What we know:
Strand order of the largest sheet: 7-6-15-16-17-14-18
Low-confidence stretches: none
Oligomer: single chain
Strand content: 15-25%
CATH topology of the domain at 2-33 and 219-280 and 389-437: FAD/NAD(P)-binding domain
Number of strands: 19
Radius of gyration: 22 Å
Helix content: 25-40%
Amino acid sequence: MKIGIIGGGAAGLAAAYELTKKGHRAEVFERAPFLAGQASTFPVGGGQLEKGYHHLFVSDTDMVDLIHELGLGDKLEWLESKVGLYYGGRIWDFSTPMDLLRFKPLTLAQRFRVGFWTFVLQKTTNWRKFENVTARDWIVAHMGERVYQVIWEPLLRGKFGEYFDQVSMTWLWGKIYLRVASRGKGLQKERLGYPMGSFGEVFDVLGQRVVEQGGQVQISAGVNRVLVEDGVAKGLEVQLEGQNPESKDYDAVIATTPSYIFTRLVPELPDDYRGLLESAQYLSAVLMILELDRPLSSKYWLNMADRSFPFVAVIEHTNMIDRSLYGGRHIVYFSNYPSRDSEMYRKSGDELLEEFIPHLKRINPDFDRSWILGYHHHKVDGAQPIIGVNYSQKMPDHRTPIKNLYLANTTQIYPEDRGTNYSVRMGRRVAQMVLDDHPGD
């Protein structure tokens, strides 16, 4: 069987790997000049660094298993994560239950209430019970308005912007339920995984393995449209860099593009399925990465529960990962999730840097502009789907109404959130759907 795959990110490559491993020919087309999608990398200090921060939780078994399967298991390290919360003009430790008990902006009763309900969420496996309520309403009802305003509202606003009060409690449950799996028993701190050499290396090796197994992986190769005849996907119109469009025949097609791109590739989609796709709303990721000559803070992950900051989180990569991988430089990410029509999205890297610098002194009073050795500015479209209430009823099926055409993107990962682990799992799952639908081929 011959399968065409649109997109060379985690889902597309994982699907191709699964199909070629079972003797089928998969051909992957990636419009960008690199693989790995949102996990792609760029050179820093002699090493490779992700454009967007990435790590693994202990529960990310699909990605961990794949790394070992590719022979890269010896590069995977599990390291202690140091988490902080910026509130009230200072950084609070926020890694363990004991840190919560020391968080004085809340009363002792409020702290116990947060701890109790967080524990309940960590032990709750039925995510459907949270589907019809927003995170805001659930937190206010169970933890109180003050807790919501101090901890959760700034984080939800930072992550989802104007949609902050529409986000389903299922999304927040998933975040909390996932985090506990990365902690040991009792009061141990969280441990996170990272493949030394970068996630980009993992997906480059995955692409090589697809080729070794008889498949094909092409970069700088755009897909103009899916070829459909009488309600059946027959192939792709592909345009390689510098060449004329070419039609290619396939027994099945898997698309891993965002929903708003998929609708352009397949104008033949019926109205009801198209409506589900068009109802999906995305936010972009805007990332500023600084190379510093010394640490900014002692934390790996610093959540900003203070809306006066122009960024929502500070991820100091080299407070967990050995900075020798980047020529001794200290790597710090500053993240935001704006809409594409926002002022922040439109700003240049220079403009954002000038806006951010005065706030770095609030994190570290000793900060000086001379610490900055270099900076990088990246934007990722379609980075974060908006997960509203009753989302499972609005989620499009992987099997589209067009026969032999399948969709696998981040709007279909629910109830989990986007991430390499769930994209790999989804890619392999959709590949198996293709095989199930074509027995004997």
